[in-house]
Amino acid sequence: xxxxxLLQLIGELERAALGSETASGTTTGVIPGNSQAQLNTLEVDxxxxxxxxxxxxxxxxxxxxxxxxxxxIRDTIxxxxxxxxxxxxxKPPCVFDxxxxxxxxxxxQETEAVNHVFMRLNPxxxxxxxxxxxxxxxxxGYIRSRVVEEEETEExxxxxxxxxxxxxxLSDKDDEEVEVIGQREYTxxxxxxxxxxxxxxxxxxxxxxxxxxxxxKRKRIVVExxxxxxxxxxxxxxxxxxxxDCRFVCHLDDNKTRSDLxxxxxxxxxxxNMQSGxxxxxxxxxxxxxxxxxxxxxxxxxxxxxxxxxxxxxxxxVDFDGDGIAERRQVLIGGDKILENEPIEExxxxxxxxxxxxxxxxxxxxxxxxxxxxxxxSELARQGLNxxxxxxxxxxxxxxxxxxxxxxxxxRAGGVVRTNGPPGNVLMPLTxxxxxxxxxxxxxxxxDTWRAMRTGVGEHxxxxxxxxxxxxxxxGQLAAMSAATLKIEMMVRLLAEGLKDVFLKIHALLMxxxxxxxxxxxxxxxVQVDPRQWKKRTRVSVNVGLGSGNREEARQNMMxxxxxxxxxxALGLVGPQQGFNFAKMGVSLLGFEHPEDxxxxxxxxxxxxxxxxxxxxxxxxxxxxxxxxxKTQQMKSQTDLQIAQGDQQVDKMRVQAxxxxxALQNREDRHxxxxxxxxxxxxxxxxxxxTIVASQLKGDESADAGAVLRRDxxxxxxxx
Length: 720
Hints:
Elements: H1 3-15, E1 30-31, E2 34-38, H2 42-53, H3 72-89, E3 94-96, H4 104-119, H5 124-138, E4 141-161, H6 163-171, E5 177-190, E6 203-226, E7 231-233, E8 248-253, H7 258-263, H8 268-272, H9 284-289, E9 311-318, E10 327-334, E11 337-343, E12 349-352, H10 366-392, E13 396-398, H11 405-409, H12 423-426, E14 427-429, H13 437-455, H14 474-513, E15 518-522, E16 525-529, E17 540-542, H15 551-570, H16 576-589, H17 605-616, H18 621-698, H19 703-719
Antiparallel strand pairs: 1-2, 3-17, 4-6, 4-12, 5-6, 7-8, 8-9, 9-10, 10-11, 13-14, 15-16
């Protein structure tokens, strides 16, 4: 494929891509079956979104009426941004997962190295801030990761150098290209040394003044947030994060100047023959993004080297070499010239959305969800203000021939209106509708509930103090706040997937282009990390918790976990490593970065050294005495407890013995009583038997004797 054919193909794909000024579809077409719904291109939607964010006029304003615009979209985004940034910046948004027990330390080192490149060697905070805000407002956020080889040229002047100093200066710059562009040699008088005899003459010395041009070559990984309006994505793209399978990705970098391209190593003749790019005021998105007119670039600067070039960085999957297999290539185009065309491993652009639409690259934005609410609240505010203005400045019917119109038209407190005749015959106030502000304010508050339901941003997430709310329990308010923040956490979780792809790309760039080891600080230790010895990784975890609740809940969970660990420590189930992990979690929750500043890592040499010193050093007598006292107190406490338990047992046995003795005594008393009763029974029985025998011997069989005998026997039976 020739360069002309490749440029023609790129032009066709760009015209049909997402975000193109001439994309498929039309801004005047309608959806079949719905004559009210218009089709917009992505460029037009972004134009509306930026205007709505700035609170610009809606286009339906009426002259001499209120034209206020309620900035609900901006307020909602600015409420979400601090929460999202706290989640992302408090800790690395992504971590590399170990692939085995021997890979834990390496995975941690690689995570720290990638985070070091992203957050410290690049403005990571601003990259995340721009990426998140773009996704919330314009549906998609984009980040580019690439390796840049730059040449920096500086001129340095040195004076009064002797031969040794000049040689040392040049030797210190072995890794740089040094060119002497100016030199002056002369002699000076050097005072004699301090130990020289008095009157010793001064000595002459040869010195140099030099002017050097120093050229430094630097290779670094550049990570930057890309404005969505500067990207063209193939319309059939379905992935919302990784664009490696996207057929066409084009970045319009209109900030490149001729000087920038020459510094990056491109041929100066080719660059100087390029046409300058078009001014930014011709772009709808650029116009909408500018806050003031001063930001518009209308004319090219007079200096030729500072003129901007229309520069395109294109990632395209195409069969350029004609082997029948399409490969991924990066094509750099300056004006209408191809500057570079080479195969690449992955697409340098990473994308992310806050509200994902399945099977589509573009997601939904807060503009899509809140624009109707912003229009409704703006109209309510306008009508309320118009009503208030009409109530304060009512209309009057006037006989203009008999009234001083200048007095009438001048509205001021205590002003006089001069009339020719009785005022009642000249002026008549017109009946005005009542002030509707009392109805407008509740309606606006009701519309705010729609925003809370759609985005989670409402009174529960705006920092209200639960103790100050009436008729609402604190626990219920915290639960409502946690439920409301789930929507925000879901947005952050989806955005973190885009950062996950960024971390993978930085990891791959370090493996291929880092030509020397890196010195990193892990906790309090400095370690040497060599990315050339890394292995390719694909397992990356997003380090953003979903549904973890707010900080109040996290602190409560930490307290519960601490109590559980105390109970486990009593059973010997908690060691130094578990204690360090608990402290590390608490330090991170409190917002500090390095837990090693507060507790020692059991794996650190510092901890190992301290343990070895404890084992070698004899015990401190004071510590030993304290331990002996503690053991003595413990033994005394145990002895006192045993004595107390023994006394309780003796008392219990005494009570039981007394109860048993009393029961035995009662039993013996009953036996004695029973014995007396039995003896009386036997005595009576003996008397009865004697009576019977005596009666039989006398032959007395009279009825009286029988009756007495029967009565005695019955009495004896009853007693028995």
